[in-house]
Amino acid sequence: MSTDTIYAVSSGTGRAAIAVVRLSGTATRAIVKSIVRRLPPPRTAILATLRDPATQAEIDSGLVLFFPAPRSFTGEDCAEFHIHGGRAVVAGLLGALGGIDGARPAEPGEFTRRALLNSKLDLAQVEAIGDLIEAETEWQRRQAVRQMQGGLSRQTAQWRSALLEASALVEAEIDFSDEGDVPEALSRRVSGVVGPVHDALRAELAAAKSSERIREGVVIVISGPPNAGKSTLLNALARRDAAIVSHEAGTTRDAIEVQLDLAGYAVTLIDTAGLRESADMVEQIGVARALEKAQNADLVLWLSEADRPAAPDERLGAAEVWRIFTKADLVVNKDAERGLFISAETGENIGLLLDRLTKRAAQLSGEGHAGLITRERHRKAFAAAADALARIDADPQAPVEFLAEDLRAALFALERLIGRVDVEDILGDIFSRFCVGK
């Protein structure tokens, strides 16, 4: 880990009432003293005049806080300058810091990386901080807070502790027994530990999709033949003109995505090209992309005109398809058993459709009470651990060396999940998504 003292603006960019500039590293104490001439008491804000150490020119007056190691976010000496947020003020302080030997601008996520390396956070908590920063809906925020507070980490640590106990029993049998077979008493003890952990992992894997939908959003695709009112519906649900609406068939060639917040649940609503046979190469590409979006969606809204109903395209391959009949103001007979009749022109049943979509988004997201898995990385780690434990469950009388190897595999998967073993290969991707001041 670098011994440099790093600094960065931790608040938002651009002009603001207040800007926060953060420091972390061994030179923090000396740097603070050089700028404000005294060191604040630990974790206590003081009002001070900030000066450029090189010229003694006054930069601003603001609050200064000092957090001595190890009781700081990074585990190192840290400090914060809370100054006025004008661009020139911020630039003046950053320029002064840049002129101090041993201080350099932080890289994206470097403060959090140092917290990880100093064991102030584990890998799951690091990811949760990134999720909290990016959270746009209430349930995304709640999920990120739970993970940041150690929800996944605590449960993983409990499973790890149980498996370490089983592993110790098996390793002791290897060390002190001349027999290759597993004694029945040991088999029962190992099964008694492994079984509940295996069951818990399988339950989490079963709930994984719901948890991931909270973080990534429920994907709803609007599909149907050309001129069925797909773009009009997208605009109505988004409450803005996100898509071009035209009476000319085939206007939409590429998918148009809109992010919605439905009662705190994130939803990605996608308008796609009309499905029909066409000699136009560009339109064919649009149709192929539309089908791909539909096949990967959580829900497809199949639109067709109420006076010209069309059955859902057999190529959709979606898990769930709702039939929606548009331009309902043009027909009299509206059989609710066939589907929902709507009219963007009059607003008929648009609110009802939105209510139903909100309810379904909540259901697909586990009503907000989903499990611990929020990322594909988590899912893979849980699956690897569960697979290893499944082999033990399937044959608890297997040679003791096999049991030991499977337990080690399960432990490695869980330890990699929370960053207890080498995870350098994934840190770059994680921290590349962080802002500089975090």
TrEMBL record:
Keywords assigned: Cytoplasm, GTP-binding, Hydrolase, Magnesium, Metal-binding, Nucleotide-binding, Potassium, tRNA processing
Pfam families linked to this entry: MMR_HSR1, MnmE_helical, TrmE_N
Tagged with keyword Nucleotide-binding: yes
Cofactor(s) this protein requires: K(+)
Domain of life per record: Bacteria
Matches recorded under InterPro entries: AAA+_ATPase (IPR003593), G_TrmE (IPR031168), GTP-bd (IPR006073), GTP-bd_TrmE_N (IPR018948), GTPase_MnmE (IPR004520), MnmE_dom2 (IPR027368), MnmE_helical (IPR025867), P-loop_NTPase (IPR027417)
EC number(s) given by UniProt: 3.6.-.-
Protein's cellular compartments: Cytoplasm
All residue ranges annotated as the TrmE-type G domain in the record: 217-362
Cofactor binding summary note: Binds 1 potassium ion per subunit.
Residues at which (6S)-5-formyl-5,6,7,8-tetrahydrofolate binds: R22, E80, K120, K438
UniProt xrefs under PROSITE patterns: G_TRME (PS51709)
GO molecular function: GTP binding; GTPase activity; metal ion binding
Binding site for Mg(2+): S231, T252
UniProt GO cellular component terms: cytoplasm
Broad class of enzyme this protein falls into: hydrolase
Assembly behavior: Homodimer. Heterotetramer of two MnmE and two MnmG subunits.
Biological role stated in the UniProt entry: Exhibits a very high intrinsic GTPase hydrolysis rate. Involved in the addition of a carboxymethylaminomethyl (cmnm) group at the wobble position (U34) of certain tRNAs, forming tRNA-cmnm(5)s(2)U34.
Name listed for the protein in its UniProt record: tRNA modification GTPase MnmE
